[in-house]
Structures are given as C-alpha cells and as structure tokens.
Design goal:
Strand order of the largest sheet of chain A: 1-2-10-9-8
Number of strands of chain A: 10
Strand content of chain A: over 45%
GO molecular function, one term (chain B): phosphorelay sensor kinase activity
Order of helices and strands of chain A: EEEEEHEEEHEEHH
Number of helices of chain B: 26
Catalytic activity (chain B): ATP + protein L-histidine = ADP + protein N-phospho-L-histidine
Shape of chain B: globular
CATH topology of the largest domain in chain B: Heat Shock Protein 90
Helix content of chain A: 10-25%
Distance between the termini of chain B: 19 Å
CATH class of the largest domain in chain B: Alpha Beta
Largest sheet of chain A: 5 strands, mixed, barrel
CATH architecture of the largest domain in chain B: 2-Layer Sandwich
Oligomer: heterodimer
Structural class of chain B: alpha+beta
Protein name (chain B): Chemotaxis protein CheA
Helix content of chain B: 40-55%
EC number (chain B): 2.7.13.3
Keywords (chain B): Kinase, Phosphoprotein, Transferase
Largest sheet of chain B: 7 strands, mixed
Number of helices of chain A: 4
CATH superfamily of chain A: CheA-289, Domain 4
Chain lengths: 150, 809
C-alpha cells in the first residue's frame, strides 16, 4: 500500500503526516494568544473566515524549550470537525509511503510512543507516522481533563 | 396571530407525520408502552397548543384521547384493539380539523361526541357507533385497517387547498455552507478593498467594486435572515398565555420578559417554543399559589413569572423563574419511590439537587389533581427529551416557599451576536452585549472602588457589586494602567446576578459572527467562542457565565429572590433620585429622572415630521411624539433624543447634548412658573431644571404606534428608482417590489406620474386609494391635485400626510 505522506521535522525528528489529513499548508500570520490554556496551544489564527487553533507540536509532545527552528508555514489539519494549524520545525516534502506502519520493539521513547501510529518506510527513508488526535490532545497530564471536558 | 396559527398547523402536521409510524406500530401491539408514550405526547401537545387558540373541539378530542391513554400509562386500563381504533379515529379527526383550520373553513359539526364515546366504550364491542357517525369518512376507513389508513392519509393530502406562502425546506448543512462561503467572500472583499486603496483611485475598478460591496452586504443580510429569528416570536405569545391561564385558575400572575431581541436559529426557535410553554403552564398551575395563600405567606398577591433569554457564544440560556411555592423535595422523592423511579435506599443517598431533577423523568407527576391546564407531568420529560435531542439541557433549582427557577441551555450551531470588544494590555476580547448592563469608568466618584480582603467591590446604584479584574482572571500581566483608571463593565447574568469586570479600555461594539473553538481551548472554561475582527484578526469571546460561576458569583434561586426583594425594599425606603442631565436646544441645562429614560436614540433629521402641530419622529418603526425641537433648522443632520417612557406611553425629548447620569443630592426647589419643570436643583454648582414627568406625560405622552414601514409604489422608470426612490425611503417608506401585486387594502401609497395617472384613469384601471400625482412641469394645472416632481418640500409633506392618515387606520 502506498499513500501520500507529508514529511516534516518535529523536535528534530522526521515525522510523517497522512496527506489526506493535511488540508493545506499556510503561511502563519498573526497568532492571537489564548490565556489560561495549556502551553502547547499557541493561540488562534484566521484562515479566511475560519478560526484555527494553533498547536505547537514540540510542546504538544511534551518537550520543553524551543531548541528548534520553526517553519514560518503551518500545516492545517482537521480533527473531529475542528481545524488546527500545526507549527513544527520544518515542512519538507511530500512522498509516498512503502508498506504499512510497523512497531519497533522497545517503542519510540515516552514522548513519541503516545503520538505514534508506528514507523513507516517512505521513499525518503523511515519516519514516524503521527496520530493527529493524540498529538492534539497534548501531553499526558492534560489529556485526561481534555477528553472529560470535550 | 396568523403566524401563530400557521405555526400551529405546521407543527401539528409535522407531528402527525412523525407519529404515523408509531401509530401503526402501536396498532400491531397495543400493549407497547413506548408507543403509547409517543402518541400520548402528541395528543398532549395538541391539547396544550389549543390553549393558545379557541378550538374547543380540538381541545375536547385531544383531552379525551389523552385521558384514555393516561389510564393505560397508569395501568388503570389495558390497551386493546378497540381502544387503538378509537384513538386512531380521533387522531385522524385532528388531522382533518387541522386541514380545515389551515384552509380557514369550518369543519362540519358533529361526530365528536361519538368518537369520544367510542373511547370510553372501547372495552365493549359497540365500536360501530364510530362507523355510523356522519361526516368523517377517514375515521371510519381507518377501522378497516392501518394500510387503508396510510393510503387515505397520502391520498388526502393533495386535496387540501394550499393557500400558504410558498416556501421550500433546505438542509441546514447547505445553509451553513452558503453562510461560510459568504463570510469568506466578505473577507476576500475586504482584502481586495485594502489593495485597491493602496493602488489609488481607479474609477474603472472602483465603480464595480462599490457595486460588489453593496450586493455582498445585501446577500449577507439575506443569508443571515434565512437562518435567524428573534426569540421574540416565541415570547410574543406568552403574555396572552399567562393571562388566560391565570384567569382560568383564579390566580394573579405578572409576566416579565427580557432578552426578546436575542436571535437564534429558526429551528432552535421552534425547539424552545414547546418547552417554554410547558414550563410556564406548570409554573402557573402548580407553582403559583392562589392570591389568598400568597397573602397568608407574606408574599404579594400577584405572582411574578420572569422569562429571560441570554446568549453566550454558542449557547443561549433561558431562565424561567417564578416566586411561587417552590418544589417539595419530600413529595418528589416519595412519588419517585412510589412509581419505582428510585428505590428507598437510593433516595437516602440523593441530595436535594438530584431529587429535584427527578421531575424530568418520564411518567412523573406530583400534581394531586389532573387539570385541564398542565396535565400529568408529561410536559417535563418531553421538554427534556426535546432539548437533549438538540444538545441542550435543562436544570431546575428551587426553594420551598420562595420559588422555582428553570434554566434551559440551548446550543446555537451558528450565531451572530452583538458584542462589546474590550482591551487589556495588547489583547482584545469580546463580551456578548446581552450581558452588559452598563459601562462606567472606574474613576467615576459614584463607583467607589474598594477592596475588602482580596475581593474588589464597586458600588453600583447603591449596591455593592463584586468586581473581577480581567487581567487576573486570565492570568495576564497587570498592565501599566492603574486599578482606579480602568473601565468597569457591569454584567448581569441570566440568573439576575450582577458583577463588574475591570478592563483597560473599551474598544468597539458591533455584530460578531461566533465560531466554535477547539475542545482543548473550550475546556479552559473561559471562552465561549472566537470571532473575527474586521481586519481578519481572530479574537476570543469570553464565557461570562462560566467565569462568574468559577468565582462563585452565581447565586441559587433562594438568594436571588431575596435579593430582588431587598432591592425593591431599598428602592422604596431610601429615595435616591438619579437623573439624566442634558442640554436642550434652547441651551437650558435640564435633568429628567433616570427611571423615565428608556434609551438614548439618534436619528436622522429626515425621520422627523414637523408638518403637523405636534411634531413626531419615527424610531424603530414606532411613531413617537417629539418635544424640545429647535425653532429653526437642525444644527446637524442627526438629532439625539432621550426616549422617555412611563411604562405605557412614550415620547422623545430632543437634546443638543447629553451630559451624564447624576444623583440628585441637593435640595429640590419647586418651580411654579413653568408647569413642565418640577423643580430647580444644583448639580455640581450649576442650576439644573428638573423636568416634571407627570406633566410631561399628561401633555405629550402617547402609547407608541408600532408600524411597519409603510410601502410606497413608484412609477416604473429609471428616474423614479434613482432619484425619487431615495427621497421616499428617507421619508420612512419601503419601496414596493415592482413585480409584486399592488395591495388593495389601502396599506400602500402609490406615487404616479401625471401621464401615467391619466392613462390609467382613461383605461379605467383600478387605482389605489392613496395616490400622489407628480407633474413634470412647475406650473400647476387648475383643478388637478398634483405636485411638481422636483418640489421636495411638498412631496415630503404629502408623504408624511399619507403616512399619518395610514397610521390612524
């Protein structure tokens, strides 16, 4: 099976997003911060008449600090009917996947295992396939409250 | 009233269609209690709706069917095929009657008694009585079986005369798509406009661009109207309902409606109609005591029923509260144990709140007697079921002897609300306008900003009101603006509680299109949605109710009722008069008591009619008497008014300048030489004449004439569209659609060119009663009542005269 994959860099690692999940890639304009929300919610921004929630993927994974460069572009994805703009290190390319996602013995590390569907081979090499819903739920300590509130 | 009737017909028919399947399923298995419940609800709703209108036959039939079904539900009677048949005959009869009502015909009398008798006799085998009953063939065909019934039903439909306004039904999804498409178009237009301005003036592009702008705003209005309706359409029927019910029951109830201008989706308006009616019926029937009991308990003999609608982001909350006897926890619990809803051991573990919510369970009722008005508690389980279907909720809180408060929450799939944009630090937030009671700068002396412990308090109209700092609430850095230099937005919650929110400054107010936020943001509990500013920047809409309840600022029913009682006491005890200061067109500094001021209005000078002895102005389609005009021409194109009201009558006071609301602390010195002035007093070392409200309303007050804008039909030429049209519109008329048929009821005024008129007269074509004839030459033809077409003054005067005549109809 070969699907189109959007290849990105998140927290210094290569990650793949299903291309059919990604609606578009936009130049991120002004972001309005949203006080009193978890850190990984960078704010909201407008795409035409739509409001997008901007998610910083690095913080959503649970990494602290900002040691990585940030792509001025953001990937727009839709999860459960809501649209999000994902900020990440870099949006690289679109390639095709080779085969199904597979698991690796020993996992991908605590931060990554939570959001990973598995490892996927692509024509650009192996990368981590990201489960968007898990990514957007934010780091573990928050995810409990969020699902309860939603 | 016609609208209501059409709604009733449409609703009943919809329910009929929906319950058709249930009816057939019930016939297959008469003991199926779920089906009985559905059909029971249908007849119950029909019975309830009949309360609005004078349909004794419908009410009689549905009441009889309801009785029989209630017996089945209570287990007093075994449903059998005969009963099913009799009930079906009645439902069929209801359908026939609804058809007749819609067509405006009288359904041939008779037959009802037989149908009702059949219900009671259904256990025996003499159901033949129904078949022999005259003048209702469907009722007898139905006896032959459900298949025939279904056929009959479909066959009958095309026969009913359709004199209804043409309309189509559309899926809401489609409307949503169109709506968001239009929103995108508006933003694209703004973007384009911005770029055009940068590029400088280009006449060839600017013209079409202007046209695009106009068209777009028209389309936007139309789309918005397609989906939105004011909740007023529901509220309008309530005072009458309350009046009739309380008269029937020998009770005295005053109804207080608030928030009628809250707009919501048409379908949502329909969703709240029934629940509200049910709750109001219950409140008056079971909640309110009779006047003698109320006096005994130390209450006013007139009960107060208040209904308030508020909108917050994607929810609207409607609070219905009464000051009746409240809900009896013990009685509810005992009844719930009796009917097997809960067990006795469960009961001991339940708190009062939880027990009260049991009234929403199906089959629950505490009323000792079954009455014609609210029936058997069927209402509330239907209410909850209907609200939950659209993702809403209902809660009740109550204190014995003090009152009951129902809170309905209904979501809005889409909403446009009036909002206030406030700023703290660098960031803007929106607050729904419906919460905003008043905006005061905190340096105002009357506000008396203090801190008690950590809690900030302000004084508003003699009441200490808690105050929240928005910066603290949102955990932002405190700006460089001093606490005492902030602006206070006083917010009133749907429960009636008041609190102040301190912000750095007020930015603007206007219509906001509210979009939902992602769950992760919503879960913070501070925001109700997001909205885009004109420049496309998104801002957050604050969830006022939630913020207030996080800080414990929402009281329960008890304290709320006590509070209002205190407020009235303090008003009566301590006579702090407040007045609105203004300067009139004669340069006098005047004051009018604040209680009289309903609103401050601004209107163009063209809305004022000075042709008659007593000048009038049109505000919001209401014609109001007007005083205080300058003798000469207006100094500006727009005139400000104080709209004064004594509850019934209204009048407008034209003012040059509005100063401020002040407290009248100095002594009032009565004045005798001017009857319109009550007294002279000092405000800030200057004398001020206090207007005598009694004399003012005795002389000038009039109940406002609510008029839709009158319609004016113009000659079908380019000249009249582009030159005459704007003049007619500014005189307060709507221009008739050229393709529409002229109305013969005298509600329209027609402007005709002289040639046209003569031609029409010569051809003996029908001519409207009210015609203004325009001649193209300045010279008058003797004997002809015509106006030169560029004689603006005469034309405006004629239009005003025609409207005055129309208004007196």
């Amino acid at each position: 099976m070969s699907d189109l994959m959007v290849m990105t860099q998140i927290a210094g690692r290569r990650c793949a997003l299903h291309a059919h999940d990604v609606q578009s890639v936009i130049e991120l304009g002004a972001v309005t911060p949203v006080p009193q929300t978890p850190d990984f919610i960078a704010g909201i921004t407008a795409l035409r008449s739509q409001a997008l929630t901007v998610i910083d993927c690095r913080l959503a994974l649970g990494f602290k600090g900002t040691d990585w460069s940030t792509d001025p572009r953001a990937a727009v994805v839709s999860v459960n009917g809501y649209s999000y703009a994902l900020t990440l290190d870099a949006i690289e390319d679109i390639t095709t996947s080779i085969g199904e996602p597979t698991q690796i013995t020993g996992g991908f590390g605590p931060e990554w295992s939570r959001v990973a569907t598995g490892m996927i081979e692509t024509s650009a090499g192996p990368s981590l396939l990201i489960d968007l819903a898990a990514l957007i739920a934010g780091p573990d300590e928050k995810s409990g409250d969020l699902s309860a509130a939603a | 009233m016609d609208d209501l009737l059409a709604d009733f017909v449409a609703e009943t028919r919809e329910m009929l269609e929906a319950s058709e399947g249930e009816i057939i399923a019930w016939e297959a298995d008469p003991s199926d209690s779920a089906r009985i419940d559905t059909i029971f609800r249908f007849v119950h709703t029909v019975k309830g709706n009949c309360g609005f209108f004078d349909f004794p036959r419908l009410a009689g039939l549905s009441h009889a069917a309801e009785d029989a079904l209630a017996d089945c539900r209570a287990g007093r009677r075994e449903p059998d095929a005969a009963l099913v048949t009799a009930v079906l005959a009645i439902i069929d009869r209801i359908a026939l009657m609804v058809d007749a009502i819609e067509a405006g015909e009288e359904l041939s009398a008779g037959g009802d008694e037989e149908l009702i008798a059949a219900l009671n006799a259904a256990s025996e085998d003499d159901i033949i009585a129904v078949e022999t009953a005259p003048a209702h063939s469907p009722a007898s065909t139905i006896l032959e079986g459900c298949d025939a019934f279904a056929d009959e039903e479909t066959a009958k439909r095309p026969d009913c005369p359709a004199a209804v306004q043409r309309s189509i039904r559309l899926p809401v999804d489609l409307l949503d798509r169109v709506m968001s498409g239009v929103s995108d178009m508006v933003l694209a237009r703004n973007d384009l406009g911005h770029r055009l301005r940068q590029a400088g003036t280009q006449p060839t592009i600017d013209g079409p661009f202007e046209r695009l702008t106009t068209i777009l705003s028209d389309v936007r209005d139309a789309i918005t109207r397609m989906r939105m309706q004011r909740i007023e359409t529901v509220f309008a029927a309530l005072p009458r309902l309350v009046r009739d019910l309380s008269a029937d029951l020998g009770k005295q109830v005053m109804v207080d409606l608030e928030g009628g201008d809250v707009e919501l989706d048409r379908e949502m308006v329909e969703m709240v109609r029934d629940p509200l009616t049910h709750i109001i019926r219950n409140a008056i029937d079971h909640g309110m005591e009779v006047p003698s009991d109320r006096l005994k308990n130390g209450k006013r003999e007139i009960g107060l029923l208040s209904i308030a609608a508020r909108q917050s982001g994607n929810t609207i909350s409607i609070v219905v509260s009464d000051d009746g006897r409240g809900l009896d926890e013990e009685k509810i619990a005992a009844k719930a144990v009796d009917t097997g809803l809960i067990t006795a051991s469960q009961r001991t573990q339940m708190g009062r709140e939880a027990i009260l919510q049991l009234i929403f369970e199906p089959g629950f009722s505490t009323a000792d007697e079954v009455s014609n008005v609210s029936g058997r508690g069927v209402g509330l389980d239907v209410v909850r079921a209907n609200l939950q279907k659209v993702g809403g909720s209902i809660k009740v809180s109550s204190q014995p002897g003090v009152g009951t408060l129902f809170t309905l929450q209904i979501p809005l799939t889409l909403s446009i609300i009036a909002g206030l944009t406030v700023e703290i630090g660098e960031q803007r937030f929106a607050i729904p306008q419906s919460y905003v009671e008043e905006i005061i700068h905190s340096s105002a002396k009357a506000l008396d900003f203090t801190r008690v412990g950590e809690t900030a308090l302000v004084t508003f109209r003699g009441q200490r009101v808690p105050c929240l700092m928005l910066t603290q609430v949102l955990g932002l850095d405190v700006g460089d603006i001093d606490e005492r230099d902030q602006t206070m937005v006083l917010l009133r919650l749907a429960s009636g509680d008041l609190f102040a929110l301190a912000v750095d400054r007020i930015h603007t107010h206007g219509d906001l299109v509210v979009k939902p936020l992602a769950p992760a943001v919503m879960s913070s509990g501070f925001y109700a949605g997001s909205t885009l500013l004109d420049d496309g920047q998104p801002i957050l809409l604050l969830d006022v109710t939630n913020i207030a309840s996080n800080y414990g600022l929402v009281s329960d029913a008890r304290t709320r009722v006590l509070q209002t009682a205190e407020e009235t006491d303090s008003k009566a005890g301590k006579d702090i008069s407040r007045a609105m200061l203004f300067t009139d067109f004669h340069g006098r500094r005047c004051a009018v008591r604040l209680e009289l001021v309903k609103r401050i209005e601004t209107a163009p000078a063209s809305a004022i009619d000075r042709t008659s002895a007593s000048p009038r102005a049109v505000i919001d389609n209401a014609i109001l008497p007007l005083i205080g005009l300058p003798d000469g021409p207006f100094p500006a194109e727009k005139v400000r008014f104080l709209r004064l009201s004594d509850g019934d009558s209204e009048l407008l006071q034209a003012v040059r300048e509005i100063d401020d609301a002040v407290e009248l602390t100095e002594k009032l010195k009565p004045v005798t030489d001017d009857p319109l002035i009550e007294a002279v007093t000092l405000v800030g070392d200057q004398t001020v004449s206090l207007v005598d409200g009694h004399e003012l309303f005795a002389r000038y007050g009039e109940p406002p004439e609510i008029t839709a804008k009158p319609i004016c039909r113009l000659p079908g030429s380019e000249w009249s569209r582009s030159i005459l049209g704007p003049l007619v519109t500014s005189a307060g008329y709507d221009i008739a659609d050229e393709s529409s048929e002229p109305k013969e009821d005298g509600s329209e005024i027609c402007i005709m060119l002289e040639e046209e008129y003569e031609a029409a007269a010569a051809l003996e074509m029908p001519i409207a009663d009210k015609v203004i004839r325009l001649r193209s030459l300045p010279q008058e033809t003797p004997g002809e009542d015509t106006i030169y077409r560029y004689d603006r003054d005469a034309l405006v005067a004629a239009l005003h005269k025609a409207r005055a005549a129309g208004g007196n109809r």
